[in-house]
Design goal:
This protein is α/β, with parallel strands linked by helices. The chain has 17 helices and 21 strands. A hairpin with a 2-residue loop joins strand 19 and strand 20.
C-alpha cells in the first residue's frame, strides 16, 4: 500500500480548476457539509429529554473533557443570505428573557452530571452573541466557570457582527477572558453589501478589531463568502486583499447556499445576479489564491490559517478536528449545546434543542430538557464518522487502518473503494491501495468523496446544499 502523506495532500496551493462540465456534473448533487456524521437531517424524536438526561447522568467526568456551545439567536437586522436560526429584535427585553432561560438550562445540565465537567473550549454563536448587554455577558461567563471546571487555558470564542459591537462590549469580552473572536465580513464591496442587506463599511470592521485587540483579544478570524449576488472574481479577490490588511490569524471562506424554500428571506436575493457553478469555483479559487500567495495554509474545505496558528499546526500533525462549529482544534468527545436549536454531542450520540423559541422556553420553564431530537450512534456510525472526519480534515484517509482500529478487517471497505472508480476516472479522488485522497484541484468536491461513505444520504439529500 502506498503511504501518501495526508499533509502533502492538504497543504498544496490551489491549482487550475476542474473543467466546467465536471463541476456542473457534481454540483448537481446535494451533499452535507459533514460537521457531524450522521448529519442533522437524520436526527429524530426518538432521542428526547429523557434519553438526554440519561446520557448526562452516565457521563464519566474523569474520563472526558468537554466543550460548551451557547446559541444566542438574535440580530439587529436580517442579512438576506443568512441560513442561521435567528430572530430580529429591536428591544432588549426578548434577549434578557432568553438569557434567563439559557442560564437555567446551563444549571439543569450541570446538575445532571456527576462531578464538574472539565471544559477547554467555549463558543458563543448566533445570531449575534454580542447583542447581549456587557454585564449580562460577564455574568454568563461567571456562571459557566461556577458550574463547570473551565481550564485556565480554555479557548473562549465569540462570533461578532462588527456593525453592532460597542467599545463597552469589547471591554467586557476582555474582562471575561474571551481570547478568540470571529468577525462576519462576507464582502467589502458596497454593491454586494447592498444586495445582501448588510451595509458594513471597512472602517467599521477596522474599528471593531482595534477595540478587541486593545482588550487582549488577539486571535482573530474573519468570515468571507463567495457566490453572493453581484460578486465577481475581481471583487472577491479584492475583498480577500483587504481582509489581509487586518492581520487575521484565520479566515473562513463559505459558499452562499441559496435555499429560499428553507429560508424565505433569501427570496429577496436576485437569483439572476448569482454566479453559476463555474463562476462560484472561480471566485473561491481567486480568494484561495490571494490567501495562499500571502502564506496562509488551506485547511480542509473552507478555512485558511497562518502556518503558526494552532489550526494549521494540528492539520500538519494529522490532529485536526471537525464538529458542529466547523474545523477546530477541539477534539472533546463531549459538546454541550445550550439555547434554542443548539446541537450537542456525547459519547452515546447527538442531541438538538427545540428550534422554535417558544418550545425551547416552555421546556426550560417546566424544568425539563428542551431536547427536540437526536440520534443514538451505532458502531457503524462511529466507524464511518472517523473515515469522513479524516477525509474532510486531511483530504486523505487510510481506510484499511481506520477499519482495523474499529475491530474490522482492513479490507472491510474494499467494495466501496472499487465503487469509487467513477470519481477516480473524473479526477475527483485517487485510490492507492486502501488510501483515498482528494487531489488539490478537486478540493471543493471533497464532500462528494466523503459522501461515498455515507449510508444515510439517500434519505436526506434534498435537505443539503449544492456541492460547489
Amino acid at each position: 500500500m502506498n503511504a501518501i502523506s495526508p499533509v502533502a495532500c492538504a497543504t498544496a496551493a490551489p491549482t487550475a480548476p476542474l473543467n466546467a462540465a465536471l463541476l456542473a456534473k457534481y454540483d448537481g448533487l446535494r451533499v452535507p457539509r459533514y460537521t457531524s456524521y450522521p448529519t442533522a437531517p437524520h436526527f429524530t424524536a426518538a432521542v428526547g429529554a429523557e434519553r438526554y438526561a440519561g446520557w448526562l447522568a452516565e457521563l464519566d467526568t474523569a474520563a472526558h473533557t468537554g466543550s460548551l456551545y451557547l446559541h444566542v439567536p438574535f440580530c439587529a437586522k436580517m442579512c438576506w443570505y443568512c441560513g442561521c436560526h435567528t430572530k430580529i429584535v429591536a428591544r432588549y427585553a426578548p434577549i434578557a428573557e432568553y438569557l434567563g432561560h439559557l442560564r437555567r438550562e446551563i444549571g439543569m445540565v450541570a446538575d445532571r452530571i456527576t462531578g464538574r465537567l472539565r471544559v477547554r473550549h467555549i463558543h458563543f454563536g448566533g445570531g449575534t452573541p454580542t447583542m447581549m448587554a456587557p454585564d449580562d455577558f460577564e455574568s454568563l461567563i461567571a456562571l459557566l466557570r461556577e458550574r463547570y471546571d473551565v481550564t485556565a487555558d480554555a479557548e473562549i470564542a465569540v462570533e461578532i457582527d462588527p456593525r453592532t459591537l460597542t467599545r463597552e462590549m469589547a471591554e467586557a469580552l476582555g474582562r471575561a477572558g474571551v481570547n478568540r473572536a470571529s468577525l462576519g465580513v462576507q464582502d467589502f464591496d458596497a454593491g454586494v453589501q447592498a444586495a445582501i442587506n448588510r451595509i458594513q463599511p471597512r472602517e467599521q470592521t477596522e474599528q471593531a478589531l482595534e477595540w478587541l485587540r486593545a482588550n487582549g483579544i488577539r486571535h482573530i478570524n474573519l468570515d468571507l463568502m463567495y457566490g453572493l449576488p453581484g460578486q465577481s472574481v475581481e471583487s472577491v479577490a479584492r475583498s480577500a486583499e483587504i481582509a489581509l490588511t487586518m492581520a487575521p490569524d484565520r479566515l473562513s471562506v463559505f459558499g452562499y447556499a441559496h435555499v429560499p424554500w428553507m429560508k424565505t428571506h433569501q427570496k429577496k436575493i436576485d437569483e439572476s445576479a448569482l454566479a453559476g457553478t463555474l463562476g462560484r469555483w472561480e471566485q473561491f479559487a481567486a480568494i484561495a489564491g490571494v490567501l495562499t500567495d500571502s502564506g496562509f495554509q488551506p485547511i480542509g474545505l473552507d478555512h485558511f490559517a497562518r502556518p503558526d496558528d494552532e489550526l494549521a499546526v494540528q492539520q500538519t500533525e494529522g490532529r485536526l478536528s471537525r464538529n458542529f462549529q466547523g474545523y477546530t482544534t477541539d477534539d472533546a468527545e463531549v459538546l454541550l449545546g445550550f439555547g434554542a436549536s443548539s446541537i450537542g454531542a456525547l459519547p452515546q450520540g447527538y442531541v438538538q434543542n427545540a428550534v422554535p423559541f417558544d418550545q425551547y422556553a416552555q421546556a426550560v420553564e417546566a424544568g425539563t430538557f428542551p431536547t427536540g431530537k437526536g440520534l443514538t450512534l451505532t458502531a457503524d456510525d462511529r466507524l464511518r464518522r472517523d473515515l469522513i472526519v479524516r477525509l474532510m480534515c486531511d483530504l486523505s484517509v487510510d481506510v484499511g487502518a481506520v477499519a482495523e482500529a474499529h475491530g474490522l478487517a482492513a479490507g472491510a471497505f474494499d467494495a466501496d473503494l472499487e465503487a469509487m472508480a467513477d470519481l477516480v476516472a473524473d479526477g475527483v479522488a485517487v485510490v492507492e491501495g486502501r488510501r483515498v485522497h482528494v487531489p488539490e484541484p478537486a478540493r471543493p468536491l471533497m464532500r462528494i468523496v466523503a459522501a461515498r461513505f455515507d449510508t444515510y444520504l439517500s434519505t436526506g439529500a434534498g435537505k443539503h446544499s449544492r456541492a460547489v
